[in-house]
Amino acid sequence: MDLSLSDEQKQLQEAAERFVRDKYTFENRRKIAASERGWLPENWAQFAELGWLGMAFSEEDGGYGGGPIETMIVMEQFGKGLVLEPFLPTVVLGGGMIASAGSKAQKEALLAPMIEGKKQFAFAWLERQSRYNLADVSLKATKEGAGWSLSGHKGVVYNAPSADHIIVLARTAGSAREPKGLTLFIVDAKAKGISRRDYPTQDALRASELTFDKVSVGADAVLGKVDDAFPVVEGAVDRAIVALCAEATGCMDAINAATLEYIKTRKQFGVPIGKFQVLQHRMVDCFTNAQEARSMTLMASLKIDDKDPTVRAKAASGAKVQIGKSGKFCGQSAVQMHGGMGVTDELSVSHYFKRLTMIDLMFGNQQHHLTRYSNLAMAA
Amino acid sequence: MDLALKPEHKAFADEVRAFARENLSPATREKTFSGKHYDRDDHMVWQQALGKKGWLAYTWPKKYGGPGWDVTQRFLFENVLAEEGAPRILPFGPKMVGPVIYTFGTDAQKERFLPGIRSSEVSWCQGYSEPGAGSDLANLRTRAVREGDHYIVNGQKTWTSFAHWGDWIFCLVRTKPDAKPQESISFLLIDMKTPGVTVRPIIMTDGAHHVNDVFLDNVKVPVENLIGKENEGWTCAKFLLANERLGIAEVPSSKRGVSVLRQIARAEPLNGGTLADDPAFTAQIADVDLQVQALEMSELRVLSTMAQGGAPGPEVSTLKVRGSEIQQRIAELTMEAVGEYAQPYQPGMLFQDTNETPIGPDHAPPAAPRYFNMRKTSIYGGSTEIQKNIVSKMVLGL
């Protein structure tokens, strides 16, 4: 057992730290968030140049042979800076699913350019009724000649406004909520029949509601096997969850650091408020929560490539529960200890709090994953 | 002891309900139930209707133009209005400065200020907190120096709710430097139109503008605007804070919040049924529901003591603490009930009457902003930490 980072991993961490320090000051981030796209192409180009877009993929797939630990390292720093570039939807989800289920042709056409920074993805799985259930999919794909026709609705599709391709989870067979009978399609974002309603999210990311009206795709648009997408999706989402957990640990470190600094400097009753024991203990609890979050994220990152899907699922859900709990505690405590300033838009603390809150709502909240973990653990 | 209502109280509740239905605009009501922000008119039109009826200053004794209601009537009034979707009565005039004026003011001051408060023709804001005086309110630095028949006031107030709507501000000012608060603070009424008063908005985490900085730069205030004696304003300040803490628990709106939350749970889809089928979630609603009941009963016990001539003691701080936690919990559960569709940010749906349609269900757009915003409840009006200090010192003697 060895929990230390390799020299290469340390260099990666330093590079990511440097990027956030240079490019993601709070004021810079505010500008990026307010820009039309909501992220900066020059930053994306830098990610490609630094090799971050390909680091987690095998050399065979055109990547640099890293894995979940590399993703964890970068995502954690992204969390510290509240980075807005669409790394999660494009690289972790889109790239991840293409790498795990794509044909050679798909990998060549999509994964290679993604690694070069020339293609972005969005993953459309959620529907109005889905509520965290990945199999609750009713958007229909029906056979049309050699290809398929897609009709239905997808919601809160992150990065859909910027994506070149949308990876759509559709029902090709089976009844509502049945895991069997789901198929993934890679659809050109500009395909005829797709209409988009774009909007910012609470935490300044960009997403869309998508309507598919008889969108025609060829047989080569199918990603993986027809009717058998569920295991691919579940695996990709579990990886995305662990990446999100890493981002959340970065958010917690940053919000804790800001709060610690604040209670050391803010004076009331003639002393820094950090002299009051009630705040000291709360700050200690924040620190402990962030430690637990980091530990569970590391454990999940180490288990996420396990051959046994149950091991993987339990690790992802376990980490997500911890992140939900710790994120809420650190976020709410930071706001409370900042007093009125914590509730303003002016300081970074409210922005970290928002991101931590939204992370809990993505791919299943604390309660959802507690139930999932519990069911898996009881079945064993 | 009896929880049941007497027939005359039932008739009273019906009268209040009929009044609310007649006088609350449907647009305002809709904002309440959907969690949107009110504009100035939502508050003012409603408050002025209450004022005309003689109900705005509903906690005041008859002697000062209040309705002279008993505890049960007040309780019913607050609950029926919340059920009907009325905006909360902005407390600064009728609940804060009004009682200070009729308790500590001169007859001339009562005559001058109370009618405008009762009718809501004049709106008030509260000049207490300062950048260096939040939890440590007594550390306030705003100076008022007597020059002839005026005070010259210099300083900065902050977190001033609705200062941008306010006609008048009641301020705590220091009239004697470097002395104990009990001997150096005065309670001063300042016309917001006086030269030297500047209001600057503070934008909150949900994008809303409710609170402000208020800068006071050589503001000339007539001496007759001093309430009570010079340097004895701390008494008024504390009297006001005790009143503030009592109403701040917001029990009626939390009751409404629980019922709206249950409606949302019944509407939110889950695995072919609704979220209401999920016992893990509905148990959390039940838990906060019971907390609301405990809080309401505790508040009633305090009110009942007051009705027998007692004053609200420091134990009302516990009501404020629990009340804020409950409001936060309801907002949190509401956001969790909405789930993924709490993620889209739609400011247009929060602040304006637009034709924009909600992304996701109607109840989604305010859910997350409200959760963020409700964090303020354990900070304002004396933070939870300060309230607990009060209880441990004043009630428990620690």
What secondary-structure arrangement, pairings included, does this model have?
The complex is a heterodimer of chains A (380) and B (398).
Chain A: H1 7-23, H2 26-34, H3 41-50, H4 68-81, H5 87-101, H6 104-115, E1 121-124, E2 140-144, E3 147-158, E4 165-171, E5 182-188, E6 194-200, E7 206-217, E8 222-223, H7 230-265, E9 267-268, E10 271-272, H8 277-303, H9 309-338, H10 348-361, H11 366-379
Parallel strand pairs in A: 1-4
Antiparallel strand pairs in A: 2-3, 3-7, 4-5, 5-8, 6-7, 9-10
Helix pairs in contact in A: 1-4, 4-7, 5-6, 5-7, 7-8, 7-9, 7-10, 8-9, 9-10, 9-11
Chain B: H1 7-23, H2 26-34, H3 40-53, H4 71-83, H5 92-104, H6 107-119, E1 124-127, E2 143-147, E3 150-157, E4 168-174, E5 185-191, E6 197-203, E7 209-222, E8 226-227, H7 233-247, H8 251-267, E9 269-270, E10 273-274, H9 279-307, H10 316-338, H11 347-351, H12 367-373, H13 384-395
Parallel strand pairs in B: 1-4
Antiparallel strand pairs in B: 2-3, 3-7, 4-5, 5-8, 6-7, 9-10
How does this structure look, described?
The complex is a heterodimer of chains A (380) and B (398). Chain A is built from eleven helices and ten strands. The longest helix of chain A is centred in the middle third of the chain and has 36 residues, at 230-265. Chain A folds into three domains: 7-119, Butyryl-Coa Dehydrogenase, subunit A, domain 1 (Orthogonal Bundle), CATH 1.10.540.10; 122-229, Butyryl-CoA Dehydrogenase, subunit A, domain 2, CATH 2.40.110.10; 231-379, Butyryl-CoA Dehydrogenase, subunit A, domain 3 (Up-down Bundle), CATH 1.20.140.10. A four-stranded mixed β-sheet of chain A has the order 1-4-5-8, with helices on one face. Chain A has 380 residues and is α+β, with helices and mostly antiparallel strands. In chain B, α1 runs parallel beside α4, α5 (92-104) runs antiparallel to α6 (107-119) and α10 (316-338) runs antiparallel to α12. Chain B is globular. Chain B has a four-stranded mixed β-sheet with strand order 1-4-5-8. In chain B, strands 2-3-7-6 form a four-stranded antiparallel β-sheet, with no helix packed on it. In chain B, strands 9-10 form a two-stranded antiparallel ribbon. Chain B has 398 residues and is of the alpha+beta class. Chain B starts with 6 loop residues before the first helix and ends with a helix. Chain B has three domains: 7-89, Butyryl-Coa Dehydrogenase, subunit A, domain 1 (Orthogonal Bundle); 124-231, Beta Barrel (Butyryl-CoA Dehydrogenase, subunit A, domain 2), CATH 2.40.110.10; 248-395, Butyryl-CoA Dehydrogenase, subunit A, domain 3 (Up-down Bundle), CATH 1.20.140.10. The mean pLDDT of chain B is 94. The longest helix of chain B is centred in the last third of the chain and has 29 residues, at 279-307.
